[in-house]
Amino acid sequence: MSQNRHLPVVVVGGGQAGLAMSHQLRARGIGHVVFEKNRVAHTWRTQRWDSFCLVTPNWQCQLPGFAYDGPEPHGFMGREAIVAYIEAYASRIEAPLRAGVGVEAVRPRPDGGFQVATGEGGYTADAVVLAISGYHVPAIPGMAAGLPPDVQQIHSSAYRNPAQMRAGAVLVVGSGQSGCQIAEDLHLAGRRVHLVTGSAPRCPRVYRGRDAVDWLAEMGQYDLPVERHPLKGDVRRKANHYLTGRDGGRDIDLRRFAREGMRLHGRLIHVDGTRVAFADDLEKNLDNADAVYTGIQGAIDTHIAKAGITAPEQAHYRPLWRPGPPETTLDLAEAEIGSVVWATGFRADFSFVEADVLDPRGLPVHERGVTPLAGLYVVGLPWLHTWGSGRFSGIARDTAHLADHIAAQGQALAARGQALPMAS
């Protein structure tokens, strides 16, 4: 393709958010190209473990124009099925996808629009949509450097299965969704596991006869705009609730794991060779997670009562196990820990956007995906607009809103798009 060719809209990222954006733009006659530096569903393919599955039911897979219609709406797709779903979507909508072409820089032009540098040359564009999520660089704390070289260290994004880990026990740092599910995966395989807990909350899988996600959706929780959330924009910093869709779906109860032999610890605060130190907050972490769990149960009870719904009675969760005196230090050698999994999240990297639109955490400043820079948009971030924004369930609404906003830039944009050929 020629240098500095003009495109009405450039979509950066060919995952579910970028593809959904493509569908909405096509529906409005707006020309565009989707640049994906790897291939469709790359992150799902390469950064998920073998037993990974969705934690939300399949029926919530509501990509625009391609809702899940398989035989298990209340099941939970595994990694390969998720990849197949996204691939099928890209094919169905005939996305103008340029796979293997990365966007290296996005620069605003003085006269409006953008200069877009890619691996295959430069382009200009009237609008750019950043659809690359916010999980780019594994966030491993600096204290990891203090571990001895003979201890295997991997980030959760590189974890695949228990056989990958060295002999001995495994220390999993982080009790969010990934950390808890990886700890469970190791535990079920018979590995000795130490889990470092944090502030992540938990959610029931099934309560009073239905999946909690079904209840929460019926209650409008996934449609709650961020500005109406009690925490407002701060909710974007909160960890997701931990539970699992594995084996048909179930709770993750760290107290039960502890009863079965898993060692739980408070927050990791220091590493010095084989000696590690923990905060004295294990009991608080467990209690806070359970308080969210029972709070969800209580909210569902209230909804059932107000709506006059007939549902089976079910007692609220009661703790199965209480920690003893806090264990604030541990010698990895004495505990025979040969591996550490850092389930400590990611940092965003939007550094290729050469404009003053990033907040202190490196994420684009926006209002419902519309940044302060005219023509620059972002989609696919958690709580972009609602709780559903970072999930398959909310992407249709978010991309429709942005496509309408782009269309409002003028009829000329849509007219130019009619003649834009599909990418091969």
Automatic annotation (TrEMBL):
Keywords: Oxidoreductase. Pfam families: Pyr_redox_3. InterPro entries: Auxin_biosynth/cation_transpt (IPR050982), CHP04046_FMN-dependent (IPR024000), FAD/NAD-bd_sf (IPR036188), NAD(P)-bd_dom_sf (IPR036291). It comes from the Bacteria. This is Oxidoreductase CzcO. It comes from Methylobacterium trifolii.
